[in-house]
Structures are given as structure tokens and as C-alpha cells.
């Protein structure tokens, strides 16, 4: 089990390194994408700052909460885009027969597809997330570790959600548009404070579109640390990872049978 | 020993059908209907260890479907297959460590990085230990003569150099069988010759069994001793390459240069293509009349200075096989 975990980590890191090297081949593009993303995020946060200069709090949420929300959601998004960038285009990989390549190699197909791509611009999100986070806490190694753990958890939730959404392509054909809408919705909801939503919407945000586990619960953990919250987050992360894996491999069976809606039967 | 054994392998795809027009689209949306398409019709063959085999057929013949089943990517509808003693679709991961694949549609190399970086990543995918990896990279660099450009980003390589790196990448883990899908597509003549030479060396020096698909008759003629032709999901020919050239298409073109002008010439059962005072060019079907017979008849009438007999190129042979298969297909459809 431990050796397997070590092997998987090594594999993920090797792809991470190759992706990073590849992005750095174009230094100008790499740096400008990062800077652009950083500035873009600052602008979004600026609007909240303007709002909070007029009001004290928004249903219990202060500007500091919003900053942490942005820090964690951006960091989680960066984990998904940097480490598991293949999740963004999984639908087209499925629908266009791109899984053949991964099926011919001796590595777990899903993990391999996910780590095969990386988005340089997401480094801007990561730097932004970390910088904003450190502004809201007294910086220490412990806090840094907490940030890393929380964004890894959020990143896994976002990636798993994307895998589930994109895996619909196994059944419906080109499901890219739908999957993009769903993953975009998760990101958007992750960037709004939980307090502004009704009870029903909140229920949705802790189940169907699990923004609650990407950012709301992590912010709460930072605010009022409790082991049950940490346990709940860990439990949900594990659950959604397993569900995503199950759905993808169920769909893969259809791919292997060659009976996808979009299969090019001839040839 | 057979490294690939295929027995009545069969693949049927279920595809959605749609009537033309908007009405058809709405109908297909509400009540989809399906039809079955047989891509591979119970084919059987075996490939021996160390063989260099050409597996050819026109587009849509069932080549890719067969390769996908043999590499474990697709499950068959019926029949059995074993590659290196393993059932591909049951032991895909285990098999992947022992086979190599070069698919035209997806490069294994990172476009922006030098090939050596992709090699390192593949080394880790195949879990090659570091000492063996260094030794192996040395070997493939020498075998494929990659020394001069192994550290150049792939995007800056010529297509031929890229393909050399591509094949080299697929043999790092010392596969016993390698599936090459159109390895010379888009290459210029010099690059094609180089790739062919390297594939031949790979087969001879490392005893790798090579399963090659190609549309290039030269690849088949110069590389493979055996050809399997597949069309409409059926094997229509499984024979040595020489058999194909010598027996399948039996017409030959004979060029004769006369020593002295000869305006009158009478040859039976040949098709005269060109006749001048200085020479004659004619086509003979060796099934109807032997070359010796024609020449005896010729020598009796005229003194010759030079004679050459042209064999039809493999291209013509293959075109002829496809043509005949299409005719049979049409007859079947009519019948």
C-alpha cells in the first residue's frame, strides 16, 4: 500500500516536472500568464473590498473570511489545473478516442490522463492564494501546512467533480459543454460566501455541486478548528474520489466495448 | 513459437442510425434506432517470434480495430486472441510492459521538450531502473542514430527525426512485440529509407516481432516477408510478400530494343503497348503465356540488342488486390 502510494506520488511528480519544464520553454508566455491571472484575481477581490468598506459583515461573513475563501478556492483550483490539468479536457479525450494512448501504457488510465496536462496560468492562482492566505493569518510553518492540506483537499474535490461531469461523455457522446458548465458552476459557487445562500441552495452546495467542501468548510476549519470538521472534509474527499473513479471506470468499460455514441466504428 | 495467436476474432459495433433531415434528427433523439456494423469478421492468424509482418488494408477495413483488440484497448465481440501468451483485454496492464505501440494519431513525445526528457518520463512509466535506463538509452541512441538531436526540442526536429525518436521511445522497455501504425506516413523518400533501415535493424538485432500497418507499398516490399491483407473485416490474403509479387499479379511489361529495324512483328497472346522501328514494348500475362514462350517467338523474328522485364510494383499488386476484393464485395451485395 505504502509502496504503491510512493509510486503514484513519484509518477504524479514526474509528470508535474515535465509539464513545468514544458511550460518554461516559453519564459515570456509562462510569466505573463501567471502575472495576468494574479492581477485578475486581485481585481475580483477588489470588488469585495469595495463592498465591505460599506458594510461590516454579510450574514456573518467578514472581508477576512472572503479573503480566506478566495485564497483556498484559488489554491484548490490551482491544484486541479497544475497537477490534474487533464481533467479540463477529459470529455474530448474520451469522445475523440484519446484514451487509446493511455490504455496502451502500463499506468492507471484515469490518473495518467489527469496528470498529462498542466496549465501554467494556474501558478498565478497559487501564488495569489498563498499570498492572500498569509495576509489573513500570522505566518508560520503550521499555517503553511494547513493551507497546503486544505487546497489539496479542495483540489481533489474539484478534480473528482470534473471527472464525474466529463465522464458523462461515455454515455452521451460529446458532453464537453455540459461538463464545462458544471465545473464552472462549482468554481463560481466556491468564490461566493455561503452566508448569502438559502438553506436549500446550501444543501445543494454540500451535495450536488460541492462548493461547500472546496471552500466553505475549509474556511470554517480555519476560523474555528474542530476535528469533526476535519473528519467530515476528509471523509467527503475520499468519498468523491472513489465515486469519480468508479464512474470513470464504469464508462471506460463502454469505451473498451467500442460502443460509445461517438465511436468511429470503421477502421 | 507464435507470439500472436488470433482465432476467429470478431468485432461488432452498435451504431446509432438516423434518417436524413430534421425529422430524422428529432426521431433519433426521441426514439434512437441502432444498427450493427461488423468491423472484424472472425479472422484467424498467427505471428511467429521475430517475424516482420505487414497488416494492410484500405481505410475502414478493420486494421485499427484488430490492433486495438490485440493491444487490449478494445474488447472483442467474439473469438480469442493471445499476445505473448496473454489475453490482451484481460491482462492489458501486464501486456503493456511487453509490447510497444506507435500510433500515428498520438505522439508519445513532448512537443516542447527534447526527446531525452520524454524518454526519462517513459522510463518511469515502464518502471525501468536507473542503471538499466542509462544503458538502454545508450543502445537506442546508437541503434537509431539519435546522438545529434536527442537534446533538441521535438518541435524543432524534422518529421523523419521525430519518427526515429518516436520508435526509439516505444522500444525503451525492450518490448517483444511492437505495433507500428503507418511509421513512414508523410516522410520524404530519404527519411522513409532511413526509417525502413532502422525498423529492419530493430527486427534483426533485437529480434523484435514487428506488426506493421502501412499504405506505402515500399514499406511492405522492402521490409516484410509476409503480408496479411484485410478488407471489409475479412482476411483476403495471407501470403509471403514474394508470392504476392510473383503469383498474384502475373502481368509483366517487356521492353525490347532491336539490333536492326523491324517494322513487322507478330506475337501471339500479348498486348503490344508500343511498336517502333527500333523496339517494342508489350504486356504479357504469364498465366496465359510464359515469358520464355514469348521470347522464343520474338527471337525467331528479330535480332535483339537489349531486353528488360518489368515486374509490377507492389503498389500495383496491392491496388489489384483491393480492386478484386471490392468487385467480390459488389457481387456479394448484388447476389
Describe this structure in words.
The complex is a heterodimer of chains A (267) and B (335). Chain A has 267 residues and is mainly alpha-helical. Chain A has helices spanning 2-24, 27-54, 63-83, 90-95, 99-103, 109-115, 122-136, 141-167, 169-172, 176-190, 199-205, 211-223, 227-257. Chain A has one domain (2-257). Chain A is built from 13 helices and no strands. In chain A, helix 2 (27-54) runs antiparallel to helix 3, helix 3 (63-83) packs antiparallel against helix 7 (122-136) and helix 3 crosses helix 8. The longest helix of chain A is centred in the last third of the chain and has 31 residues, at 227-257. Chain B is built from 11 helices and 13 strands. Chain B has helices at 21-30, 63-70, 92-96, 115-125, 130-143, 159-170, 189-205, 217-223, 241-248, 291-299, 314-334, and strands at 2-17, 33-48, 52-56, 78-83, 99-102, 177-181, 209-213, 226-231, 234-240, 251-258, 270-275, 279-285, 304-310. Chain B is globular, with a radius of gyration of 25 Å. The model of chain B has no long low-confidence stretch (mean pLDDT 88). Chain A binds chain B through residues 7, 10-11, 14-15, 18, 21-22, 25-26, 97-98, 100-101, 103-107, 256-259, 261, 263, 265-267, and chain B through 11, 13-16, 37, 39, 59-65, 68, 71-75, 89, 92-94, 96-97, 99, 101, 103, 105-106, 108, 110-113, 117-118, 120-121, 124-127, 153.
